[in-house]
Amino acid sequence: MKPRLILILAGISIPAVLITPAVRTLLESSMSRHMLVMFPLLVVGGVALAYGLPRSFHARLLPWNREGIPGLALAAAMLMTWMIPNALDSATESLLVDALKAVCLVVAGFALAVSMPVAGLVAQLFFVWNSVMMLVYAGVLYQSLPTRLCSAYLIDDQAQTGLYLVCFAVLLGMAWLGHAWCRLRFASSSGPGRRSR
Amino acid sequence: MRTALASLLVVCIATGTLAWATDGFRVLTSEQARRLAVSERPVAVPDVGLRMDNGARQSLRDLLHDEGARSIVGFFYSRCTSICITLGNDFRQLQQRIVDEGLEGRVKLLSISFDTQADTAAVLRDYRERMRARDNIWQIAAAQDGQELAVLLESFGVTVIDDGRGGFVHNSAYHIVNARGELEAIVDLAKPLAALRAARGRRHEA
């Protein structure tokens, strides 16, 4: 099987598996699993889908997504929406909302994958910095609040999720710094507008 | 140009999804969303059967149905050592205020346990004695198991989860229900007096 086909299949099957009742129950019974396992897996699904599509598709998307700005903004909005406790609670209660969440996060991953390579470092920094700050704020809030934000989750779970969110934010920031360093280091040999894939 | 169009579209999508998640940029948590929804449009509570502390079975609607009266409904379980103790003590003080202000017949209290297994009639009677609950003001009941319990909790917006140590964790508040069985307001547990005002039919604080 062609690698592209495998990626597309992965992009479709990951969200499909994640919204089956058994997997939903397993992952959504804990806040940290919901936000730090299920969310990233759905985003990875979107990334896989984007990488599975042919280069010509990405090229056709480019005029609509110069510098990756609409794409990064879309990804940020999708991620932010599902970090709102009300949305998180709704997703645990209703399969329909959960399916919507899966679609949004797959879209976020897709938008990220098509936008990051065409975005300049400044646009990337803006997106990554905002995401890191959002995660850190949420993480500190989750750890410090004496009350529960989600009706579906315990307070200890919330505090633990907060800690994990901060760790995730730090890792994300460091990963981007590494990526930026590589891009700057090899920028002279590849010229502007190059696709980093 | 096309990027500008796409950006505009993204702004619309972002506004839409964020507005949905925050109920029009007004709430962050599901608890706030539920309070807002109820205050804007009263919700009919389901007519489920309850087990009273005297062993009798009675329907929720019948319990609430009392012309000109409103009930303050609270959910608890008798083994609870945290939030329900606050609720129980506040109900005691509310009962005293109802007596002091001559509000008998106008404001009623109803405690409903969701611990269908442990809270038998005898346990509830014991709870009544501990709380010195008066028959004419404060009713104490337990929900019936299964589907009815789920329907009841859902309609009041109460989420009960296992705490992993044999107990439950749940959200709690004062639910103001009128004689027609409509949930009119949900008042924060920290504001028993606001709950009493709402039950007297005066505009309650948000």
UniProtKB/TrEMBL annotation, chain B:
SUPFAM superfamilies: Thioredoxin-like. Keywords: Copper, Disulfide bond, Metal-binding. InterPro entries: SCO1/SenC, Thioredoxin-like_sf. The keyword Metal-binding applies. Pfam families: SCO1-SenC (PF02630). The keyword Ribosomal protein does not apply. GO terms for molecular function: metal ion binding. Cu cation binds at residues 80, 84. Disulfide bonds join 80-84. Belongs to the SCO1/2 family. This is SCO family protein.
